[in-house]
Structures are given as C-alpha cells and as structure tokens.
C-alpha cells in the first residue's frame, strides 16, 4: 500500500480495537495481517482461514514451517489452542451463516453507502474474487483498511464505485492513514482523525461526502 | 507392513495412464497448490493430454500444483475462484487461449460438493447483484427472497491428495491440505487419490475417516512434491 | 480436570431454560432416538412449552428421544422423513392434532445442512414425480433435466448430542449416534449441545473435530439416557 | 411376511447370488436382513446404513450391544473391518450418486414396468418414506423381496401400482416365494421358479403379465 511501517501499524492498532474476546475473525493479506500484533496476549479471539482452519495462529519460527499448515495465501502458520480443521464447504458455511464476527480486508474503492470494490481492475488485473464476495456480504462487521488515495491521487472513498462491486452496502468501517469512517444508514461518519491530518485534509482528499462525529477522537502522533 | 489389495484399488501410476484423454474434465483438490497431488499432476503432464477443463479452487502458482498444467497450456477452460497467484493463467486468459469461469469460492466448493452428493445444484444469494456471477444464471424466489441457481460440478476424473488411505480408499487428510480434497474426492466420475501413506485395512479409526472409501476408485502412493513452496 | 469456561458456553440446564418458548421451532439431532440429547428433551418437557415445530430425521419411539415430546402433544408440526416407529405421531396426525411435513430422508438432511451453511436450498430429482414430495414445490430445469427446489431448514434452537465437547464447542460424536447431529448443530439460530464429556480446550485433535465450535452456543453435560432402548 | 423360516431363507439365498465382492449393499428390514447369512465368509462386500455407517457388520453377541452403534432400524450392530462413520448427508450422497450397487427391500406392490410402492397405505399406515425414495431411485440394482400375494390373496405384482409410488421404473428384480422376475425394458421375465410352484401357479396368482425365460432355472425343494 506504499505506507510506512509505523502508519501500517497505526491502522492495524485501530482495527484491533474493534475485535473482542470470543469473536471469530478473518483477516485479509497486507495490513490486516498485522492486527494480531495489537491484541492482548491472553485474548480468546479465534482466527478463521478460508482454506479450512478455525483457530489459525501466528507464523511459525524459521525452520518450523509445515507445508500443509498454511493460511489462505499459501504461507505457513501455526494453530491456536482449541483449533480445528474443516473442508472448504464448512469454512464458507461459517461465513455465509454470518458466524464471522469481523473481517478485515483491503479495498480498491468503497462508496458512501458501503459498496465494496476489491477484486478486479477491468483490463488490468482480473485475479478472481476468491472468497471476497462471501466475506464482504456476510461477515457481521466488514472493516476496510486502505490507503486514502490511489497512487494517482484520486480518492478511494468514492460517491459510487466505478470498479466492479464485490458486494453491495457491506462495509461497516473504513480505516485509512488519515482517519476512521463508520458507514451509517445516512452516509459516512468520520469518527477518528489521525494527526497530523486535519479535517480539511480529509475533505480535500475524499470524493465521498461525510459527516464529522460530534465526539471525534483525535490520535496524536 | 504388507498391504493387501483387497479391493483392487491400489495401483501404480502406469496402471491408470489410460484414464487420461484429450478434452476431458479433471477436478483437483488443493488450495494454492497445498493439497494438490504432485504425482498425479506430473502423470497428467507426462501423458501429454491437452484441451482439458480443470475444476478446482484456484490455479496454484506457475510451478506449483495444478499451476504446472496451466503453465504448460494443457487447459482450454478452468472453473475456479481465483487465478491471482498464477500470472500465466491471467496472461492466457487475456490472450484468449484460456476460458475462465469464475465462481465465488464458497459457491464453487458447494458446486463441487453438490456434484459429489448427486444433487442438481444449490441456491445462494452470493453474487446475486454482481454481473460476473449472475450473468446467464436462473434465479429462484423463496419467501420473497431471491437466490441464484448454482449448478453442480462433476468431472471425468478427480485427483486428490490424502495423508493416509486404506485399501478401501478411506481417507484422512493433513491439516490445511484437507481444503477442497474431500469435495473433489466425491465429485469425480472416477476418483484417484495420491496418498502419502497407504495403511492396512482396519487401521484407520472409523470415527476419523473423512472421505469414505466408496468414493475412491484408484489409490497411488505419493513420492512427495517436486516443487519449491513460495515461502521456501 | 478443571475445565475453564473460556468462552462462557458451558452451563447448567437451568441457565438455558429461558431459551425455550411456546410456538418456537426446534431442530434435533438423532436417528430413531439414537443421538438425541436426553437431558435437553427432558428440559423441553419440564419447561412446559408447547405448539412446537420439530425438525429432524424421525419421531423416535413413543418413550425414546424426541418421541417423548411428540407423545406429550407438545408439537403442532413436525418436519421429518419417518414416523413409523412412533405410533403416537401417526395417531395425532390422523386426528388432525399434528401437522406432518414428510421429506425424503436424504433431502431432509440436505435441507438441514443448507440451513446451517447459509444456503437458500438445494436442487434434487428425488420425489420429482411423487406427489407427496413435489406438491407446491418449484422446479428448475438444468440442461434439460428437471429438479425440485428444496428449501433450507433452520430453527430457533437446535439440540444435539455429542460424545465430547471442548469449551469452544468443538464436537466429536459417538459412532452411529453422529447421524444428523452435525447438521442440526449448524442449522440452529442457537445451538445447544449435550455432551457425554466436556474436555479441556486443546485436548481434541484438530483433525478429528467434526463440528467446529463456532456453531455452538451452549454446552451442557449429559447424565445419560433415562429411557430403555427397544432392543433392551 | 407370514412366510416360514425356510422359505424366507430360500428367498434370501437367491438374493445373495446377486451380490459380488467389492459391492456396496443396503439391506432393508425383514427378509433382506437374512441375506448376509448366505454370503461366503471371506466376502469383501460392504454394507451401508442410512444412519451413517459404511461397513456395518452383524448383530453383536447378547450383552455386547452398544446403544450408539445401531442400524437404521435402531437395533445394535457391529462393524466390518474397514468401516467408517459419516453424517446422514454423506450416507445419502452415496445413494444419490449411485454408489450403492445393490439395495434389497420389501414392497407393497411392484408394477410390470418396475414402479415400486413400498411406503404408504393411504388411510391406514402413513409412516413416511424415510430413505426409501433415494434407495429405490438411485441404487444401481433394486431387488424386491416380497410375498407373491397379499393376505387377501391379491397379487402384489401388478399391472399398475394402485398404492402411492415410491419411485418409478426403479425395480430390477423381484423375488417371491414362487420365483424370480427380472424387470426388462419390455416387461417382466420369470427367470427362476421355486418348486413345488409351477408356471401355471404363478400365472394364476400374478396380475402382471410376464414372459418365461428360455433358460428358466428351477429350484427343487
């Protein structure tokens, strides 16, 4: 995402605040994978992987990798206590039934009404949706972590998605390097501001319209 | 220990070469190459067959899993949820050499399972409003709610990877290498399992068997992977 | 060994009495009473609730399994594949006291699973030409072949029986007492498991878990059956 | 069925001849349950139970019953070597996919074209179809074992079923105390005759029309 390590961890730390004990959580690749670093050591959160793990732990120590114990990206992981394996239908049954409490994923665009586009750039990159549609449509809470803007400078928080949609009105929260937005029935609400960015900065760089919370939390550097 | 071939299912790779033919459909187990049977992938490559329809979770990596077959341009069509980890698949799709049918991952695996379970298909609301998913599909309305009709998938041959197989074909899998293998195991008209270990009948706990042997036609012993994992 | 109640799922019967209400739907695991949770059946009886819709394989025997609830006339409707072993069910059906929806057994269990998997339903050709099955059902034609649309089943509460449960609700079952339990376990809006044994977190092999704990809301310890089996 | 022990075993013995090594076989209650008594001791046939057993063995010795290891009728069984347990969906997936090689069941009526009625007597007995529809419609070979006639004397091999049908054109073979019929594309063929019954006896007591095989096998008593 072209963000520095500190900013990436700032975003991950804020996302971690949305996760409570006992929840089932699915993390996408990139910044979302940093979220566990910001959870209490004695948490009882269970991590879900689309390839059939409930209770996926952190990366193994170097040399302790098991080629048959990997995350959905194909990289070695370990198990949490109380974990289980299942086949892919059960892994997605949990998602479709709404048992994933929080999914944290990246995005290409998010619209004012919470539409998500995160899987295709027509004519450029067509990787396939993988499990993104199920996660986006069915997780109880969908949190998007993304750069506020494209490399070209254009806003990724848009009035309407111009890229093909992954799922409609599915995003609950967007966290960027500038701040945190909640997607409410009447539109976006800026709830958190990451200094040194100002509300004016965000207004300038955001295509979507948004309200500012009366109880805006401002994070100093 | 000597394994008795009670059900005539245990065989060598050369015994099953005859099953592979140009233009056939092959369903494969595995997720990002993990749990895809390496010996059977090589058998398919060595057999020289082409114009294949491949059905499975994804196209692996260029030199890993089913990706090797895609890279060698043996497939004319793939039915998958994801090709992102294999740039060759994207390249051939763009050039028109490879037809790609994308199915959301959870839908794809239910379609595979439905084929194995003798069902016609399933109803889901995933992708109902997304054109890549809903185009040309029937919808059914139940109690005022719309669902897409997603059809069952079967294949001429399924290839799967297991940790252990007994002579009846009862299978257990290995950690997250289970993934789509139990589904592919059921959905083939003929199913071949490559097992890391073949164990005597009666040594698998009846409670721990994931795939009952009745779904399995041929059992070969695995020699392990001949590729390097992405993290190595 | 002391069991830590890490996920607040382990409880006593009195802690969950509040879940049971007149007119609710209850899905139950079990097949001919085998694998139906005896303590939860008694809890339902003791709670005094009535006008229930019961969903499961069959109505057990008059004094065994869910049959006890049917015998006591607590159900207004049952969705099952079979009532042959419980003459009371037939009697109440004939007298108009009990509405019975019959579903072929394989269809019924797929409907239960579909509910648990968040699907809208399944397509099958079983019963396509049999009026008891096909009446009032939609059909879908795929590649010239007709299928019945069979809708997913869920319930307000599911009750299941397991051999072992850990504090997360990971379950393993006991021999043929598994039957419909893994399906009912997934399909409840709330699922209660009665386990013969509650074991510490981390003691179940992750490979052997049949029902992942995420589907389970409440865990109670079983005191065993209080009925006599038909063969005893 | 009101048949003597010897006749019941004669029917079961004939049915056993249709089962070969390696087959998956589902047996109904009643006479079908006697079939295993007539198989070679070293057979490799696997028995299927709808409640989730592949590899169901014979009844246990008295006092060795396990309440959690029973057949679909609720009576204790044992396991064959190589057996496995599964949930009810897998048990029926095998049936629907056509992996059950032979199912042997009872019937109320069988028609000339192989229609089966075996689950309901309207107004009298409505037990529900259980797994009969799947087994009848999808097993590779459906063998019906039944009395040739009702207690009232009327034929159970009929031109058209008058009782509600379990599945259409599904029966491949009918074995009664009088003989064995194959259901062929052009109708019923009597292939085996159990003496002392004669072809004339069968003609007299059979409503359905049938041909007699050129190679009729006659079993002396």
Automatic annotation (TrEMBL), chains A, D:
Identify the keywords attached in UniProt to this record, alphabetized.
Transferase
Transmembrane annotation, as ranges: none
The Gene Ontology terms for molecular function here are: succinyl-CoA:3-oxo-acid CoA-transferase activity
Quote the PANTHER family the UniProt record gives: KETOACID-COENZYME A TRANSFERASE, SUCCINYL-COA:3-KETOACID-COENZYME A TRANSFERASE
SMART domains documented for this protein: CoA_trans (SM00882)
Q: Which family does it belong to?
A: Belongs to the 3-oxoacid CoA-transferase subunit B family.
Superkingdom, taxonomy of origin: Bacteria
Answer yes or no on keyword Transport. no
Q: What is this protein called?
A: 3-oxoacid CoA-transferase subunit B
- Give the Pfam families listed for this entry: CoA_trans
Q: Which organism is it from?
A: Peribacillus cavernae
Write down the InterPro entries for this protein, in alphabetical order: 3-oxoacid_CoA-transf_B, CoA_trans_fam_I, NagB/RpiA_transferase-like
């Amino acid at each position: 995402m072209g963000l520095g390590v500190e900013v990436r961890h700032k975003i991950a730390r804020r996302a971690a605040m949305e996760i409570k004990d006992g929840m089932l959580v699915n993390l996408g690749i990139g910044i979302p994978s940093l979220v566990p670093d910001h959870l209490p050591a004695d948490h009882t959160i269970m991590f879900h992987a689309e390839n059939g793990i409930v209770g996926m732990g952190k990366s193994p120590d170097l040399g302790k990798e098991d080629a048959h114990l990997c995350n959905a990206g194909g990289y070695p992981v370990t198990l949490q206590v109380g974990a289980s394996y299942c086949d892919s239908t059960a892994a997605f049954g949990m998602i479709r039934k709404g048992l994933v409490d929080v999914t944290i994923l990246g995005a290409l665009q998010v619209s004012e009404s919470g539409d998500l586009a995160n899987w295709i750039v027509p004519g450029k990159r067509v990787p396939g949706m993988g499990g993104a549609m199920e996660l986006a449509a069915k997780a109880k809470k969908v949190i998007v972590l993304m750069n506020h803007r494209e490399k070209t400078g254009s806003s990724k928080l848009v009035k309407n998605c111009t890229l093909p949609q992954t799922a409609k009105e599915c995003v609950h929260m967007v966290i960027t390097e500038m701040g945190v937005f909640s997607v409410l029935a009447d539109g976006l609400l800026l709830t958190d501001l990451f200094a040194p960015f100002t509300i004016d900065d965000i207004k300038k760089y955001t295509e979507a319209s948004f309200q500012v919370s009366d109880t805006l939390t401002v994070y100093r550097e | 220990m000597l394994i008795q071939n009670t059900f005539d299912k245990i065989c060598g790779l050369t015994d099953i070469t005859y099953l592979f033919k140009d233009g056939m459909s092959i369903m494969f187990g595995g997720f990002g190459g993990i749990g895809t049977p390496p010996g059977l992938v090589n058998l398919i490559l060595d057999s020289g067959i082409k114009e294949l329809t491949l059905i499975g979770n994804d196209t692996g990596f260029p030199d890993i899993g089913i990706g090797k077959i895609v890279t060698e341009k043996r497939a004319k069509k793939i039915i998958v949820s994801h090709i992102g980890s294999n740039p060759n698949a994207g390249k051939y799709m763009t050039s028109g050499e490879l037809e790609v049918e994308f199915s959301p991952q959870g839908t794809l695996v239910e379609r595979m399972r439905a084929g194995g379970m003798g069902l016609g298909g399933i109803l889901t609301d995933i992708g109902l409003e997304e054109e890549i998913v809903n185009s040309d599909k029937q919808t059914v309305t139940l109690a005022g709610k719309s669902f897409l009709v997603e059809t069952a998938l079967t294949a001429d041959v399924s290839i799967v990877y297991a940790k252990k197989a007994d002579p009846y074909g009862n299978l257990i899998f290995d950690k997250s290498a289970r993934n789509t293998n139990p589904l592919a195991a059921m959905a083939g008209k003929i199913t071949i399992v490559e097992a890391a270990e073949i164990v005597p009948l009666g040594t698998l706990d009846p409670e721990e068997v994931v795939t009952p042997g009745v779904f399995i036609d041929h059992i070969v012993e695995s020699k392990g992977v001949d590729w390097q994992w992405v993290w190595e």
